[in-house]
């Protein structure tokens, strides 16, 4: 299965994949939940590729709930792959949907500011720095409150490291 998935992921770099793309979008949620430790990272790499291609990025948004779920379950090994995917996907969302999703992420994933991996912490900070600009008014204020509370945890974590 892993070899087949790796081949499919490599194919995503090709052009004219309409039929294959639909197939990939159908099977990716199943393989994100695979017990094989390499499989979710491989699938996330494929989703990242899709989210970076202008001709396929919008179609990849159907996977947003599954990608968010992957991160919510605390799979720290995949966090460094999930966060860039979420960053790309949030930038593709429009209007109220981007605001609602960004706030949902802030409320559910604040614990990533305290992650052991400096890379994950930095990716999470970047995600919220980028999404802060998508929000306006009361939603932006709410996001700032969540981020400030989370930054306090990060400060304590960094202080403990010293």
TrEMBL record:
Organism: Tauraco erythrolophus (Red-crested turaco)
Cellular component GO terms held in the UniProt record: cytoplasm
Location of the Maestro/Maestro-like HEAT-repeats domain: 32-162
PANTHER family from the UniProt entry: MAESTRO HEAT-LIKE REPEAT FAMILY MEMBER 3, MAESTRO-RELATED HEAT DOMAIN-CONTAINING
Matching InterPro entries: HEAT_Maestro, Maestro_heat-like_prot
Transmembrane regions: none
Protein known as: Maestro/Maestro-like HEAT-repeats domain-containing protein
């Amino acid at each position: 299965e892993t070899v087949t998935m790796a081949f499919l992921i490599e194919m995503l770099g090709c052009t004219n994949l309409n039929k294959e793309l639909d197939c990939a979008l159908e099977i990716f949620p199943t393989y994100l939940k695979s017990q094989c430790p390499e499989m979710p990272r491989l699938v996330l790499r494929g989703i990242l590729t899709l989210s970076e291609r202008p001709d396929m990025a919008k179609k990849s948004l159907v996977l947003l709930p599954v990608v968010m779920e992957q991160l919510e379950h605390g799979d720290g090994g995949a966090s460094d792959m999930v966060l860039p995917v979420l960053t790309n996907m949030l930038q593709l969302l429009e209007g109220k949907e981007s605001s609602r999703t960004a706030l949902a992420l802030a409320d559910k994933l604040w614990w990533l500011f305290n992650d052991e991996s400096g890379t994950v912490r930095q990716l999470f900070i970047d995600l919220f720095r980028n999404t802060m600009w998508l929000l306006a008014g009361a939603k932006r204020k709410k996001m700032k409150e969540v981020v400030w509370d989370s930054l306090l945890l990060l400060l304590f974590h960094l202080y403990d490291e010293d």
